[in-house]
Amino acid sequence: MAIPGTAPFGSKTLPQALVAVARRKPGALFLRVVDPRAPEAPPRQLTFGDFERAVRRAVAFLRGRGVGAGDRLLFFAENGAEWQALSLAAQALKAEPAAIFAQLGGEQAAAIGLRVKPRLLVVSDAAQWSKLSGAAGALAAAGLATVVAREPLAAGALPPGVAAVSYGEIFEGAAPELSPAELDALVAGGDGEDPFLLLFTSGTTGRPKGVRLPQRAMLRAIEDGRASTAVTEEDDGLHFLPFGHVAGHDQFMLALAQGHRLILVARREDVPRGLALGPTYLFSVPLLYERIRGEVEARLARLPRWARPLGRRLAPRAVRRKLGGRVRGLFSGGAGAAPGLETFFEELGLPFVELYGMTETAGLISSNLFSGRRVPGSAGHLSSVVEARLEPDGELCVRGGTLMTGYLDPEDEEGAFTADGYFRTGDLARFAEDGTLHVEGRKKSLLVLSTGKKLSPEPIEQVLASTPPFSGAVLLGDGRPFVAAALFVPPAELERLGAAGRDPAVELLEQARAALAGFSEYEKPKRVLIIPGSLDQHPALVTPTLKVKRDAFLRWAAAQVEALYAPARS
């Protein structure tokens, strides 16, 4: 779907944007890379010129392996500078990079790999490759010729005819490389409809869909992302969202095209190391911010009542110190923020900007800063390159410059678009009188009670998950006479209630209903299922971005859910 218009950042493609910034400020710092394998080591530093040279080497390598227009690469690896250098090199050659989450299990990764049919595969290490070993022969038969890893894979680990190559062979020493002039000439022929990336949806309601994003979609998304976030060339962003998620690319490509710095962290547990380097902004899914708020509120609750006013006055300083001391803004995307989260950080003096989008729209549909003001509880105003309308049932449909080319598999296209080219987002939404967009839940996750009442579970789950002591929640009730909730609770809290002689189910139901005071009576749970621990301790029940896989949860807890709704309890 070709979209007319001027080229954002003066470029038609991201490789062109890379060349432009590398020629403009080659010696300026671009990346500080935190090495997960060396906890005590300082970050590795790369200038824009260093990174552009890595891309020139990656182009030479890919050409040498026969990669060209129409070929696909598959990235099944942790974040890293090399990851993006190889991806941009593939884009310069008009090949199509594809990415999946590094945390995926072998079965799901292999299934996607066989749909992608890559000529070249990038993995983190031998352990990552071992997840795919059962499908190695099938991948080779489908065209896999090369496996790239940080360190050389052992001889005999790959099928016959498949070569193993290490990062060092591509990026270090006397590795071949294009000259700057050769890269300039190569990228000059790029077009906005060239492939940028093939990404996969989270699969909360079924098989992940392959989303084919063109260059113009990402460029337009980051152009409006720059306007919404007000990030400048002087900023240092903390980057830890995975490259399997579109938001990870939004942040990286904005920094690349604009010319600002990034602190690159591959693993969530290394985020404190990144924060210690003093970022000026964070971009995260809401979970990180919810945990920070939970920690602050828990500390205040432990103080004597007389000391709490002082604790609240000191909280802004403590939070800023925890975030590295230089943060001036918090950006949130990938999921809806819980009610009150924006207000909490705004009261601490930290602007909180929520962006809304999805993989199919290159991660951007609306933002809270397009209107020049923030509206807590909303997804803000539409991007300047997005048109939107609501279907009679409330489903949001969009079209515009950030929209994908289409899906990898033709069967996924069925019903995805309206007759006049609007994409059906699957989100239920409304527009307020001030023009702000309010997203109210997923159409497919709508709960329809046997009484005929309908409700979206996500807003209720967000409130519960952000209310101590709950660490996660799944709302139940589809086809049932009333709403119930599965509540994930820290074992220490359950032990505390038991030691006090109180029934956890009764006590926690009361707390849950109190937290939902602003909701209608039929939306509040009448029964609760208490599950010790946290939702993210069960990888099979959540996506890599920690969204609930509702069908998977209902299968996992089928017997307990049935007991919850037994006639004797209704």
TrEMBL record:
Question: AMP-dependent synthetase/ligase domain: from which residue to which, for each copy?
Answer: 24-408
Origin: domain of life: Bacteria
One GO cellular-component annotation of the UniProt record comes to:
membrane
Q: Does the keyword Zinc-finger apply?
A: no
**In Gene Ontology terms, what is one molecular function of this protein?**
ATP binding
Which Gene3D superfamilies does the protein's record reference?
N-terminal domain of ligase-like
- Kindly give the PANTHER family that the UniProt entry links to this protein: AMP-BINDING DOMAIN-CONTAINING PROTEIN-RELATED, LONG-CHAIN-FATTY-ACID--COA LIGASE
Name listed for the protein in its UniProt record: AMP-dependent synthetase/ligase domain-containing protein
Q: Which organism is it from?
A: Anaeromyxobacter diazotrophicus
**Lineage, highest ranks first:** Bacteria, Pseudomonadati, Myxococcota, Myxococcia, Myxococcales
